[in-house]
Amino acid sequence: MPLPETLFCAQQIKIPPELPDILKQFTKAAIRTQPRDVLQWAAAYFSALSKGEPLPVKERIEMPLATEKTDAGLTPGLLKILHKQLSPKGMVNVAELKEKWKHLCLPEEQLKAILQLDDFGEEVEWMKVLALGCSVLGGSLLSSMKHACEILTRDPEGGAARVPFETFSFLYSYLANIDGEIPEEKTEAFLHRIKE
Is the pTM of the predicted complex or chain greater than 0.85? Predict the structure, then answer.
């Protein structure tokens, strides 16, 4: 086995010129995202960076509410990351969803609970998973739809959080159906009223 090359001075170390900027962007992303397992998240970050995929990075830091536990799991910011990574596919393999979930250091039990709310196979429709994730965040149908609109909107933050009516209608109908307590006629009447 050959001996490692001995370094005698700093001039022998070649630092790529782009490395400081990469590390600076990584550090900012880690501060915004606040991952529970920095090493696991860093591996996912650099893997996505090398593949040209959407990075597992929140747009802004989320401060926990006083009523939340410090280890709450899914947040709107993390659900938005998953949406950016998985929505272009439409249908997502459950194994890939589990991998992305794990990369964000989210509790596996929480994903299992979400997937048990519907009869999913090996492939899941991403928008349904998004809706169920919003229901976990929201607690009520109204609050769930508010989270969904804030995640899906292209409006600036703090704006109206508008989404296409077809998207809103699909998510609302799906969550109302999963809830099981809202008659279909009431769902249709509500959607008809807001469309006008």
Answer: no
